[in-house]
């Protein structure tokens, strides 16, 4: 079981890994060793609650295909194990991001006293600048 939070876990069989060759610098080792990892997670076939599945599918994320498969490519590290752990961590963060519901923002107005204070400070600042000018005789 892959633990996402204390209340949520998914079976390791729902996550599919495949080793691929990493891009970028690394000398000849890049051409020989498949150290990058592709993580594939089918959202529709997962054991996640329906609410979380729907929120995941509603995300505007290019890593989620039209078929509902989340693909994460991890190639930050030079070993497969570290890249695998990195991909799992990123999957955990994506799933955790849909478990929290943001509060709806209610528009507020500044209070009357705060408006008065702001205007008083502007007036005071203006008076100070006027006093700095040359005296006209």
Brief rundown of the structure:
This protein is α+β, with helices and mostly antiparallel strands and 137 residues long. It contains four helices and five strands. The strands form two sheets. A three-stranded antiparallel β-sheet has the order 3-4-5, covered by helices on one side. It has a two-stranded antiparallel ribbon with strand order 1-2.
Descriptive key words:
Double Stranded RNA Binding Domain, 5 strands, alpha+beta, 137 residues
In percent, how helical is the residue content? 25-40%
Q: Write down the CATH topology.
A: Double Stranded RNA Binding Domain
Could you give the order of strands across the largest sheet? 3-4-5
CATH level 1 name: Alpha Beta
Query: How many helices?
Result: 4
Class from secondary-structure proportions = alpha+beta
Task: Give start-end ranges of low-pLDDT stretches.
Answer: none
The helix/strand series, from N terminus to C terminus, equals EEEHEHEHH
Q: Estimate nothing, just give the exact number of structural domains.
A: 1
Task: From the alpha carbons, calculate the radius of gyration and give it in angstroms.
Answer: 27 Å
Give the strand content. 15-25%
Report how far the terminal alpha carbons are from each other: 87 Å
